[in-house]
Design brief:
Chains A, B: Its EC number is 6.2.1.13. Two copies of one chain form a homodimer. Helix content of chain A is 40%, strand content 21%. By secondary structure, chain A is α/β, with parallel strands linked by helices.
Amino acid sequence: MRFFFYPTSVAVFGSFKKGAIAYEILKNIVDGGFEGQIIPVNPKGGEIEVAGISFKVAKKLEKNVDVAIIAIPARFVPSLIEEIGDKIKGAVVISAGFSEIGNFALEKELVEKARKKGVKIIGPNCAGIFGVHANFFGSFEVRVKKGGLALISQSGAFGGAALAMGDEEGIGFSAFVSYGNAADLTESDFLEYFADDKNTKVIALYIEGVKDGKKFIKALRYATSKKPVIILKAGKSKSGSKAAQSHTGSLAGSYEIYKAAFQQFGAIEVEEMEELFDAAKVFEMYEKGGKKVAIITNSGGPGVLATDKVERLGLKIAKLTDNTINELREFLPPQCSLKNPIDLIADADYERYKRTIEVVCKDENVDALLVICVPPIFISSEEIAKAIIDAKCNKPIIVNFMAGELVREGIKVLEECGIKNFPTPERAAKALHWLNLRKDFNE
Amino acid sequence: MRFFFYPTSVAVFGSFKKGAIAYEILKNIVDGGFEGQIIPVNPKGGEIEVAGISFKVAKKLEKNVDVAIIAIPARFVPSLIEEIGDKIKGAVVISAGFSEIGNFALEKELVEKARKKGVKIIGPNCAGIFGVHANFFGSFEVRVKKGGLALISQSGAFGGAALAMGDEEGIGFSAFVSYGNAADLTESDFLEYFADDKNTKVIALYIEGVKDGKKFIKALRYATSKKPVIILKAGKSKSGSKAAQSHTGSLAGSYEIYKAAFQQFGAIEVEEMEELFDAAKVFEMYEKGGKKVAIITNSGGPGVLATDKVERLGLKIAKLTDNTINELREFLPPQCSLKNPIDLIADADYERYKRTIEVVCKDENVDALLVICVPPIFISSEEIAKAIIDAKCNKPIIVNFMAGELVREGIKVLEECGIKNFPTPERAAKALHWLNLRKDFNE
């Protein structure tokens, strides 16, 4: 399946009028810097200009390509697949108008023709795919930064929104796949594939339902044995399950069965979209964590909020060793609280943060650090960001710089070094919770 | 207490070197457009320029003013209060170095001297106050937009971060008070005051602990009888309670007692900082809601997520009447799902949203609407925003425009009309939950 996400050549089928879906996908591929061959195909032929580059529109596909992206009326898709099947390895069928509106026969025909030719199908009725590390943006959705998250979404619109919002949250992506009706390839195939993709550090899955429960369980077991898998299952409630059925035609099934499977294999189930982002962020940085947390802050209140959330989530506020406390006492001002949470107080600077992180990190009672910074008084937030970056520490550090615009520069400096920010103490604490869930599974 | 938040004159005591706290507060008052008299006071006298305006620094306070803001070393504060007590109604003591570091005697002296003169004290060890509708920004914290939220915070840093983040979330503020050590005025006094402040629609309270439980209960009962009160109680867990004690010296007390009181009086208790923002946003718009929710969306997935969350929170997915369904069928395309959640599908435009909202709003089975918009395909998000604004509907409408930058313009249009956006379906659903809690209390 690698050819889908690291293609060397791609053909796009559809209308190349500005605003048309095939045009928008072609433009995204060109704008995204794809270096392989790009062939627009439309029976009318002609020439088009995209992002300053002229393309001859082929009337038919003459050359072999890895991937065909198809955005033509549904009824023509099966015969197109039959026609070009020998020249392509796989097709992404964007076109809607198949089983989701009751056209089961057309979808069956599509799959049969594809399988006869040995062609793999993603879709139909999908938003396309990204292979971010190949600069391949085979979708009309917004392009995103390179990174470690492979996002697999049954809902195209959810996927599109998650790409845009995740990118703003500082998430880097390895790949995106909207698999629509899952007529051929399903969530299970993608789970197994990304489990072995070297650029993917963490997999996130939005599902309403699965077609083949056994296959899904097998794929989930395999993927979770390789890397963290985050799942947002929609259609959990009674009305939600009905809504899912009318949306993707999924029989959402009993949520209890899903939940048991997620727990058995140590998948990280999240409850909300925002949690999916936060979990993805933490697993882009770290593989696992531990229960005992040290909190370092320059402000008491946020430290208390983090403490509450850490305990509520079943983690522990680490009991620092006497050694650690003595070492901290040597250089911290007497007003600082040395009990965990450690309050470095409002005038904490680069040195105070850096040395404290290093001393606490060595403490055998500490598994992970949660470092909070409200806008410092006399220095810029960048100084604190640099302290976190420079501190020698081999344990997970989760960062909560808070107050939006006032710490924007610090967050930027952190992000440039791959350290992602969690905007509230509670979201930072939850990130540690998910890290810890992953650990439990591996033990 | 009104003079604190609607002063006609203010004196600021401290150092007016750039970067010094008194200077920053003075600058904030001037920049904020305060139209009353402003008198900087420092025994050294001299002249200073702030935001292009020259001020003579008084060596002593000669005139009467409503409020003194004091940022001088702690040990000099009681005698200053004695000296100026006859000329001021109240003082905001920013200075730290009182009970929070064990100087109980100094704090006692401050209060005694103030009470002898009939002067009300906010603080000491606090971040100051805002009276936003009087353009009075008597704090070094970031200035915010005018609106309906009065934020009362025991922690100055929490308050400062919440102002900055809340402003970015689109919250409007009526007032802010950081009350620090609460030596004289406490959270209970502010609760009672803002309950009657005409510019305050909703009160949010960050507390770690209270000094006088009976007084707090009385104030909470009164305030909740007048308007929604949102509470973020920190120090709930065992470690959190200890941390609170070393932070504000608060005996956090048994959380169970607090919780019972919050529930008894219908206060809206939130668990996280972000929830405090969301609850504030919804109560700035609406006074109360109801259990039966109609969801209108242009994308299935987010509709399913909203549905799950609505049911999980104990709200109901409204069963639309046959009348409503028939009316919708008249103008909606056949592919649209007319069961709640109502899916207007991806090409939904101004008319489709507006008419649907109006039809659904009339349905007697519907108490509130949750309207979702992912980036529309052929039109701008502003069009959908306008449809929501123009739709005639007398029930609460909670809006979730999602995908960050892609819907920014639509969110801006909404905010200009006082409609606040909730960035995920789940956060929108929670907003409805809080609205409904308030209703239960009033019934």
